Amino acid sequence: MIGTLYAVEQHIREARLVGEARRAYRLAHAKPVLGQFFAWIDAQFDTQGLLPSSPLTTAMAYVRERLAALEVYLTDLDVPIDTNHLERALRVVLMGRRNWLFCWTEVGAKYGGIAQSLIATCRLHDIDPYIYLVDVLQRVGQHPAADVAQLTPRLWKQHFADNPL
User: What is the pTM of this model?
Assistant: First the structure.
């Protein structure tokens, strides 16, 4: 059933459906599959054929509790079916985790995490992290403190990406 949901998303991409056509296709093709999936999960709990300590039981209980959150992608076009793109962005941090295991100080580890978060956010917004960091470090001394939010990657792209320092 999960494979069918991903097949629906692939069809949407291949057909280049956007806007209301995308929402309508998801509702027509993915919503019934989700209904069947959650009916199957409910049936598994009703038959009580699984031990409460079973990893499958734990996973199904997790999914069952998040029905409303999982259905959001059906109607909200900005919500993808999964968070794989976010997990890929954070993979860089995970790969370096062993290298950063022994930071000199807790403060150093905190600021290393902030830097990695900024870099991952830049990549999510299709910003070259090097250009962003160089520009922001040059700009921060002359930028009004009241408008510091404009230096976050998303807003920086809108205001300064076309004309970096």
Answer: 0.57
